[in-house]
Amino acid sequence: MLWISRVELPAFGRFRGASFTFRPGMNLVYGRNEAGKSTLVAAISGTIFGFRKERDRFVPWAGGERCEARVSFAYNGREMTIARDFLSDRVQAVERGGERTLWRFEGKVSPLGRSSEREEYLSKIEDVWGFAEGDIFRNSVYVGQRDLRIEGDAGLTTRIKQLLSGFAELDYDAVVESLEKELFELTRRPGGRSRDRELEEVRARMAVLAEQWREASRAVSELAALDGTIAELRTAVAAGREDLDKGKRYLERVSRYHEAAAREEALRKDYDRIRAEREKVEALIAKRQSVEERLASLGEAAGLPDGFARTLEAWTDGSERLAVLERELAGLSADRTHAGPVLQAPALVLALLLWGAAAGAWFLLPLAWLPLAGCALAVTVFLVVRAVRAGQARSAETARIQGRIDGLSADAVRLREELDRTEAELETRLGTFDPLRVDDILREIDRAAEVRGELSRIESALGVLPPLEGIRSQEAELARELAVTRESMETLIGRGFPVMSPREYAGAEEKMRRLESEVAEKERLCLVKEQELAVVRRGSLDPEAIAEEGEELKAREIRLVRRVEALRLAVDLLRETLDEYRATYLSRLGSEINGKLYNLTAGRYREAILDDGFTLSIGVEGTPRPVGALSCGAQDQAYLATRLALGGILSRSRKLPFLLDDPLVHFDEERRAAALTALNLAASDHQVILLVHDERYLKARGADLWHRIKIDTKGQQDGQLHLL
């Protein structure tokens, strides 16, 4: 007996870290809907045989990068454990006999793949289980929910027939059809006329060979002429190719020399340019050092800031302007002090004399007093008026002079303050300031400015030129490249190597092109002649080959006659044997189905008819009816009987386990009890794993002797209810 002992699900579907142990005989697995019963059975099938399309359904619900399962089963005192990684189809298998390891395997086993590792694994599984196809497993010993029918393509049906008969990989109908087709091709033409087709073809071919013999004789002379021409052309082409190779190597060497010479010329020009730049930079640096020394020799004038000369000139101009202002103030002050009298002395003496004459006339000459008094009065009035006007003029002049003095005094004060500030700045820059050295200082400042200007021009010239170190580095690199280039030129030239001029090189290239054209033309002619030769050879045949083919055709005619007779005999014998063979395995399978159908239906039905395409009919009151005409429960009972019978025959001496995933849902109480009785009977020779969702199975008759496992709603084993 082969029985499944343990199933471990580290990461499969809703299971994570679950483990289930089974025993020989009857095993009942109970769990409510969606507890994971179907997933458990699928893990067994998938681990051993692999999945073709359903793998993604069983990737763990909680996510992750694992989808694994491990199944152990025992047989003939041995135990095998198979572990499969479903994401990569990586399989590890170990077979042990006690403590000894009998077989070990590790490799990729994809259901759709092809590899030596896969073939080794499937060969071992077929030795143990009797088959290595998951479809055979799911259509025989494994019955899923709503999956009692035997479904699959023609290949699956053929494979089940092979397993039932014990003859592997043989489709007898195809063999018979192939033999009949071959016999038809040998003995019939299209249209159905009874004629020996292939024999006529042989005789027609012999007539063609006779004509070919004559053509071959004419072609012999033509072949000889073409061979001679081709040989001459090949010799000329070989010589031309040799000359071309030599010339190309020589011209390539000359070209490389010219390239090196051009590079040497360019490098030399660059080297001369860089050396001139280096000399120019060095000269500017030396001149800058000399100018800096001249600037340092100027002393404090070299350190004065720009614009200091303007400050000195401004101080000198201010001093001169202050002196002019002071002189002008002194002159105005003298003019104000020496202003003339208001009345002139002669006019005053005249007035006094007239008044004295008038007074004397008052006493001496009364008649002359009045004219003299009038004259004195007129002179006096004139003097008074003139004195008033002279005083006003003097006051105005004095005011004007005073105003001018005040303005000049304010200018002098402001100018003196500016001079004081300027003098303080001069003393800050020059120390003790000597006004007599102003001209000398200005001349020194002009010389320093001139020197600084020259230094600035030198710096500007250096600024547009590269740094001296970079120029020296570039000069050294160019010198190295120039030396390497000259060395390579000397190496290319060698001893006794004639160097062409560019004009001679152009002429040599033209000559090589002409030679290459001539060789190409000869190669073309050679190819044309070879094609002509091939055409002639294809059109001509070897007389010896023609004679040999004729002998073969004669022998073939004899073999064909014998083969036709043998094929006719083989078709007749194989057809008769095939009919007997089909009647044998269908009769055996039908007998097994009848007994199990009688038990499952509590004696209601006892006759099942299965044709060669596994189409099932049930005898109802002596009349065969298609199984689809029965109720759902009766259909499931008929198909379950078929599965149990088929699995029992396929098991042979192996006694394979039956895995039943809730197949009795459409059974009534009576037939469910009959089915459990039949399963109990099968469990005496086979392991039966029955998965159910109905608690009534736990209380069924004899259930206390079963190995019972309960799965909770979280997909975990809820303890073993009973251990047989």
TrEMBL record:
Coiled-coil stretches: 257-301, 505-532
- InterPro entries membership: P-loop_NTPase, YhaN_AAA
Which keywords accompany this UniProt record?
Coiled coil, Membrane, Transmembrane, Transmembrane helix
Give the superkingdom in one word: Bacteria
Tell me where the transmembrane regions lie: 369-388
Residue span(s) of domain YhaN AAA: 4-58
Question: Which PANTHER family does this one have?
Answer: DOUBLE-STRAND BREAK REPAIR RAD50 ATPASE, PUTATIVE-RELATED (PTHR41259)
What is this protein identified as? Nuclease SbcCD subunit C
